[in-house]
Amino acid sequence: MARLRTLFTALTLSSLTHAYIAPISTPSTHIANNDDDDNSDTPLPLIIWHGLGDNYAADGLASVASLAETVNPGTLTYIIRLDDTASGDRSATFFGNITLQIEQVCEELAAHPILSTAPAVDALGFSQGGQLLRGYIERCNFPPVRSLVTFGSQHNGISEFQSCSATDWLCKGAQGILRSNTWSSFVQSRLVPAQYFRDPTQMEAYLEHSNFLADINNERVLKNQTYKKNLEKLERFVMYTFEDDTTVIPKETGWFSEVNGTEVTLLRDRAIYKEDWLGLRTLDEKGALKFEVTGGGHMTLDGELLAKVFSENYGVYGRPFDGQKETDYPREKEL
Ligand SMILES: *[C@@H]1O[C@H](CO)[C@@H](O)[C@H](O)[C@H]1NC(C)=O
Ligand SMILES: *[C@@H]1O[C@H](CO)[C@@H](O)[C@H](O)[C@H]1NC(C)=O
Ligand SMILES: *[C@@H]1O[C@H](CO)[C@@H](O)[C@H](O)[C@H]1NC(C)=O
């Protein structure tokens, strides 16, 4: 473990492939919130799960939280953490058993005095934080999520761990070790990215050993109906990919596409959708599933894009979304 940790740290420090959010500045153009008619309405709280190599105390995430409050005034933002120290939280993006990590988050959110009493929360997942939030929704969903937005997430896994530069021998060496041990239970219970590794040419090993992705994507013979039922409760599931993403391989995973060599199979053409293992087809048919793309490399975010996303998908409970009538979503409980 110590050896693996050292190598993996070297790997991630020496390559530039982090899902780290740079500080966002508030856009100069005013973004109106959607609910000027009733000032007593408080927006739903927003939970954010950050990506690999980032930590809950980072300036970039604080700027995202502050923008959420600017766009929907009164928003309580909660940045998910797996450790109270920034370095421990960062380390947990690389190391740990995702099953246990999600259990921990489920317990913390369910015990949170404000989040647990809200009728629902909104959710924002950056990179791997997107599929982790989906795991939270499928397995616990208390408090329940209304709108989930993911940026550059690996919903259909990754088929490469990291890209190393040509002369980065340490990086390449570490990558080799990870790759050769990907399916061992040692690696599956300790290295986070290995738990969403999915190479279409290794489906048998994946279905047998994947500690996380094969399970939450309901790819095994026995489908968990709770996962489907919980995901179908979303009112919005918006998936952003980055046009020039070279960090996430394949980048199409952000839309649940499967890439086999050079062939890209879109979600709507896959069994996971056609047989509706996860409720994605149900979401799509009610107009709740959105495929979006933005320019730039992995995690190239700016305030204008985020403000648009926050205004379109977050805000008060019971608000209408484009293409859907407000009456589709009756309020069960006031905030
Ligand atoms: C399905 O998932 C739920 C929530 O995690 C769990 O309680 C249940 O045991 C799972 N069912 C099966 C058949 O694995
Ligand atoms: C991860 O933790 C869960 C819960 O303790 C356990 O059932 C599972 O076997 C662990 N995964 C691996 C690959 O060891
Ligand atoms: C991907 O392509 C390989 C080689 O053509 C093939 O063996 C494999 O079955 C394909 N996998 C899937 C999931 O389509």
UniProtKB/TrEMBL annotation:
Superkingdom of the source species: Eukaryota
Alphabetical list of SUPFAM superfamilies matching this protein: alpha/beta-Hydrolases (SSF53474)
Gene3D superfamilies (alphabetical): alpha/beta hydrolase
Leader sequence segment: 1-19
EC number(s) given by UniProt: 3.1.2.22
Enzyme superclass (EC): hydrolase
Keyword list, A-Z: Disulfide bond, Glycoprotein, Hydrolase, Signal
Keyword Signal: yes
GO molecular function, one term: palmitoyl-(protein) hydrolase activity
A Pfam family it matches: Palm_thioest
InterPro entries with a match to the protein in the record: AB_hydrolase_fold, Palm_thioest
UniProt keyword S-adenosyl-L-methionine present: no
Stated family: Belongs to the palmitoyl-protein thioesterase family.
Protein's recorded name: Palmitoyl-protein thioesterase 1
